[in-house]
Amino acid sequence: MVKIYTKTGDHGQTRIIGKKIVDKNDPRVNAYGTVDELNSWIGFIISGLNDKTNVLYDELTEIQQLLFDAGTDLATLKGDTRHEYIFNNDGTATGWLEKKIDDYTAVAPQVQKFILPGGTQTASALHYARTVTRRAEREIVALQSLDDINPDVLIFINRLSDYFFAAARYANVLEKKEDILYRNSRPVFK
What PANTHER family does UniProt report for this protein, alphabetically (predicted)? Predict the structure, then answer.
């Protein structure tokens, strides 16, 4: 039986791909850790899909697969001669997301204002996924300023946050729930 604990973490460190040991607050660990958090959150979203929103199941599962590849690349040093990047965007994954964004935007009512995150439970969870994706993007940019990364990962993550916004609005459409528009800070206290 393979043990899942290494005790390296007992000293605040972890081993990345290629066996290099880094601190657990290393920018590389922050980047792939946030991608892992996002992947787990998508699993939570999938577990709550219902008859109306289950049309999102296959694409959310595919996004999880892509995020696992992206996280693997973020945990891999560019100069590692034994491990190559596995996330190859070549426009395919990003193009797929862009088509989904366009499709969902065409179905949702047009708005000229910001909308508040929320609506149905699925839409709310997708909005939260958008914010975690944005945090992952910031972590990846911070890592990129210190070390080389697979640039395809950053492009995909950037587009993914737009996807989650569009998918959240689409989930509200599927469940016939209107988005709540931001009212520009005019309080309506009763």
Answer: CORRINOID ADENOSYLTRANSFERASE (PTHR12213), CORRINOID ADENOSYLTRANSFERASE MMAB (PTHR12213:SF0)
Interacting residues of 50 by C-beta distance below 8 A, sequence separation 6+: 122, 175
Distance CA 155, CA 145 (A): 15
Task: Read off the pLDDT of each residue in 159-186 and give the average, rounded to a whole number.
Answer: 94
98-103: Cβ within 8 A, 24+ apart: 98/159, 100/59, 100/163, 100/166, 100/167, 101/159, 101/162, 101/163, 101/166
The two three-digit tokens of residue 160, written as one number: 């993914």
Q: What is the domain extent for residue 70? A: 25-181
* 182 contacts 116 by C-beta, under 8 angstroms: yes
- What the block records as the tokens of 8 is 């390296």
- Of 20-24, 29-33, 91-95, 147-151, the range with the highest mean pLDDT is 29-33
Q: How many domains does the chain have?
A: 1
pTM of the model: 0.91
**Which amino acid type is present at position 29?**
V
User: Which residues does 3 contact at the CB level (< 8 Å), separation at least 6?
Assistant: none
CATH of the domain at 82: 1.20.1200.10
